[in-house]
Write a structure and sequence with these properties.
The complex is a heterodimer of chains A (about 110) and B (about 110).
Chain A: E1 4-7, E2 10-14, E3 19-25, E4 32-38, E5 45-51, E6 56-59, E7 62-67, E8 72-77, E9 86-92, E10 102-103, E11 107-112
Parallel strand pairs in A: 2-11
Antiparallel strand pairs in A: 1-3, 3-8, 4-5, 4-9, 6-7, 7-8, 9-10, 9-11
Chain B: E1 4-6, E2 10-13, E3 19-25, E4 31-38, E5 42-51, E6 54-57, E7 64-70, E8 73-78, E9 87-94, E10 104-105, E11 109-113
Parallel strand pairs in B: 2-11
Antiparallel strand pairs in B: 1-3, 3-8, 4-5, 4-9, 5-6, 7-8, 9-10, 9-11
Classes of the chains: A mainly beta (about 110), B mainly beta (about 110).
């Protein structure tokens, strides 16, 4: 089955710096790659996603890139702010009739003011 | 407003008890999931249902079963609770296809088995 690896497990940056989180997936049939943010004590929420027919997607300070050949995708956060501090999860899915989502192990991002 | 609701926020059960965790969604989603969240291990898929009465094992189904008798409700059952099942349990739902396949999560149930 699908396996998703995520690095680093923890990341500390200064406010205003950029943060990058990387994930690799094992199943070449995967075609949907969402990123979720989980603030302390809250439920995970989708922040951005990308499909396999696109190489990059941006939404304000957040961007995701996908390299299908290498089977990896990355989350980029620019101009980090303290409210970006959270656990971030990547995930992969083959879509189709069942759309089973397999998650990475998470990255704890701490933005130091 | 989309909603996935889990029946309990906190539960304390004894070893050997049969435990039911309930999840209800009001979005008419076909897909429903049960995940377990542990520090350093991320969100691990226990079971997945893609339609009423249909289920598929995830990565860690041992010790768990599920029931989906109605589209909106997906139950996770611990047949005989053990201390290693102490964890945060998250339910989610999503559409199976189309442009919006975002998974929506419940608030989580923190289960402690003593």
């Amino acid at each position: 089955g699908e396996n998703v690896e995520q690095h680093p497990s923890t990341l500390s940056v200064q406010e205003g710096d950029s943060a990058v989180i990387k994930c690799t997936y094992s199943d070449s049939a995967s075609n949907y790659f969402p990123w979720y943010k989980q603030e302390l004590g809250k439920r995970p929420q989708l922040i951005i996603d990308i499909r396999s027919n696109v190489g990059e997607k941006k939404d304000q300070r957040i961007a995701v890139t996908l390299n299908k050949t290498a089977k990896h995708f990355s989350l980029h956060i620019t101009e980090t702010q303290p409210e970006d501090s959270a656990v971030y999860f990547c995930a992969a899915s083959k879509g189709g009739a069942t759309n089973k989502l397999i998650f990475g192990t998470g990255t704890l991002l701490a933005v130091q003011p | 407003d989309v909603k996935v609701t889990q029946s309990s926020r906190y539960l304390v059960k004894r070893t050997g008890e049969k435990v039911f965790l309930e999840c209800v969604q009001d979005m008419d989603h076909e897909n429903m999931f049960w995940y377990r969240q542990d520090p350093g291990l991320g969100l691990r898929l226990i079971y997945f249902s893609y339609d009423v009465k249909m289920k598929e094992k995830g990565d860690i189904p041992e010790g768990y079963s599920v029931s989906r008798e109605k589209k909106e409700r997906f139950s996770l059952i611990l047949e005989s609770a053990s201390t290693n099942q102490t964890s945060m349990y998250l339910c989610a739902s999503s559409l199976p296809r189309g442009t919006n396949t975002e998974a929506f999560f419940g608030q989580g149930t923190r289960l402690t088995v003593v």
